[in-house]
UniProtKB/TrEMBL annotation, chain A:
It comes from Pangasianodon gigas. Core subunit of the mitochondrial membrane respiratory chain NADH dehydrogenase (Complex I) which catalyzes electron transfer from NADH through the respiratory chain, using ubiquinone as an electron acceptor. Essential for the catalytic activity and assembly of complex I. The chain crosses the membrane at residues 59-80, 92-115, 152-171, 178-196, 202-222, 234-254, 274-294, 325-346. The gene is ND2. It is found in: Mitochondrion inner membrane. GO terms for biological process: mitochondrial electron transport, NADH to ubiquinone. One of its GO terms (molecular function) is NADH dehydrogenase (ubiquinone) activity. It catalyses: a ubiquinone + NADH + 5 H(+)(in) = a ubiquinol + NAD(+) + 4 H(+)(out). Signal peptide: none annotated. Residues 290-342 form the NADH dehydrogenase subunit 2 C-terminal domain. Its EC number is 7.1.1.2. Its main location: mitochondrion. GO terms for cellular component: mitochondrial inner membrane. This is NADH-ubiquinone oxidoreductase chain 2. InterPro entries: Complex_I_Subunit_2, NADH_DH_su2_C, NADH_UbQ_OxRdtase_chain2, ND/Mrp_TM.
Automatic annotation (TrEMBL), chain B:
GO terms for cellular component: mitochondrial inner membrane; NADH dehydrogenase complex; respiratory chain complex; transmembrane transporter complex. It is a multi-pass membrane protein. It catalyses: a ubiquinone + NADH + 5 H(+)(in) = a ubiquinol + NAD(+) + 4 H(+)(out). Belongs to the complex I subunit 4L family. It comes from Pangasianodon hypophthalmus. The keyword Endoplasmic reticulum does not apply. The gene is ND4L. This is NADH-ubiquinone oxidoreductase chain 4L. It is an enzyme of class 7 (translocase).
């Protein structure tokens, strides 16, 4: 694709999200979401592969239906109250409809079915955009409307997402599908806390984006899309293989790494709010996710792959890809936990 | 519930139901989406007329412009799907099942 076209598409991808961030009117927020969707479609379908085209079609149908439902619900609200402001969403049907539509947009549990196939059909850089940048605009809306949303609905969405995100990833061997399910599980953690402490949602989203970017960039460096390929990565980049194993543990939320921070703060907040049952279910469902991260970890570092290795030459070749971004994200993924007091002070 | 309110609500709901449950052809899904957007156009235009708010008068046209873009993208995807899968039946979109 020509660099001019790429520039236009990436800038309108950014501008659509910025428009949603800035707007207080539902119509403008909807326009931002539409610009965002329309800008990423050519990026997704650029390789003309049947899988890419199919993923684009599925993504388009899900996003278009969600965007239309958002606008429909805000129109109902406007007919009932005469108000278009995002904060003034009071009509109960409209609130529920918008919550479900935004859940469909980001891929939360009862309406998550488009997410793993779409991720599977994309190449790794586009998958990275899909798993990180595309979540920002809907989450800006979710955070703004969470105080008026139905509390039980948000909790149910969160619990189902954490559970299904862990459950669905168990039997996968494709890395992008595993990452899609991991994304669903992390989004569950974000949505469950959105009604109590929206700042924690933002913190979790930022840390999720850092960790997922590190994982995707590692997989891109190794050109790995299956666990099988990952098992051979020791001959390509031994040090990055070791670091990637720790990145996966951080994604699973183990204590000395960054991924523990949002889980810790969210569980603490849920316990403070008097919801020990919810907190227990969330913490136990995180074990399901941890299982498939550990399986990747096992295949990468703890066992010797039964595959034949054609040559050991890759070990001695200099890597030609640019790894600056990967370095930054990976260090942030591994070492941010000591900043927890700072995060708590800012919240 | 006024008749106007009922008509655009039921039009949108029927469109959404068609999109969700009548999964045969991609073209019919796109038509359902277009029907949903048109019912939203009517809703916005009538809201503006009922409240006589002239500041809102650009909104239905903006909505129509965006839905036209969306329909264009949908038709482009229809062509792409027909070229890669040989048909526009939604059953054929099964390469990426879990």
């Amino acid at each position: 694709m020509s660099p001019y076209v790429i520039t236009i598409l990436l800038s309108s991808l950014g501008l659509g999200t910025a428009l949603t961030f800035m707007s207080s009117h539902w119509l403008l927020a909807w326009m931002g979401l539409e610009i965002n969707t329309l800008a990423i479609l050519p990026l997704m379908a650029q390789h003309h592969h049947p899988r890419a085209v199919e993923a684009t079609t599925k993504y388009f149908l899900a996003q278009a239906a969600a965007a239309a439902t958002i606008l429909f619900a805000s129109t109902i609200n406007a007919w009932a109250t005469g108000e278009w402001n995002i904060y003034c969403l009071t009509h109960p049907i409209a609130t529920t409809l918008i919550t479900m539509a935004l859940a469909l947009k980001v891929g939360l549990a009862p309406v998550h079915f488009w997410m793993p196939p779409v991720m599977q059909g994309l190449d790794l850089p586009t998958g990275l955009i899909m798993a990180t940048w595309q979540k920002l605009a809907p989450f800006a809306l979710i955070i703004q409307m969470a105080p008026t949303a139905h509390p039980q609905l948000l909790t149910t969405l969160g619990l189902l997402s954490v559970f299904i995100g862990g459950w669905g990833g168990l039997n996968q061997t494709q890395l992008r599908k595993i990452l899609a399910y991991s994304s669903i599980a992390h989004l569950g953690w974000m949505i469950v806390i959105a009604q109590f402490k929206p700042q924690l949602t933002i913190l979790t989203l930022v840390i999720y984006i850092i960790m997922t970017s590190a994982t995707f960039l590692t997989f891109k460096l190794m050109t790995a899309t299956k666990i099988n390929t990952l098992a051979m990565s020791w001959s390509k980049a031994p040090i990055i293989t070791t670091m990637a194993a720790l990145t996966l543990l951080s994604l699973g939320g183990l204590p000395p790494l960054t991924g523990f921070m949002p889980k810790w703060l969210i569980l603490q907040e849920l316990a403070t709010q008097g919801l020990p049952l919810t907190a227990t279910i969330m913490a136990l469902s995180a074990l399901l996710s941890l299982y498939f991260y550990l399986r990747l970890w096992y295949a990468m570092t703890l066992t010797i792959s039964p595959n034949t290795n054609n040559s050991l030459a890759p070990w001695r070749l200099q890597n030609t890809q640019n790894t600056t971004l990967l370095t930054i994200f990976m260090i942030a993924t591994l070492l941010l936990l000591p900043l927890t007091p700072l995060a708590q002070a800012l919240i | 519930m006024t008749p106007v309110y009922f008509s655009f609500t039921s039009a949108f709901t029927l469109g959404l139901m068609g999109l969700a449950f009548h999964r045969t052809h991609l073209l019919s899904a796109l038509l359902c989406l277009e029907g949903m957007m048109l019912s939203l156009f009517i809703a916005l235009a009538l809201w503006m007329l009922q409240l006589e708010s002239t500041t809102f008068s650009a909104a239905p046209i903006l909505l129509l412009a965006f839905s036209a873009c969306e329909a264009g993208a949908g038709l482009a995807l229809l062509v792409a799907t027909a070229r890669t899968h040989g048909t526009d039946r939604l059953q054929a979109l099964n390469l990426l099942q879990c």
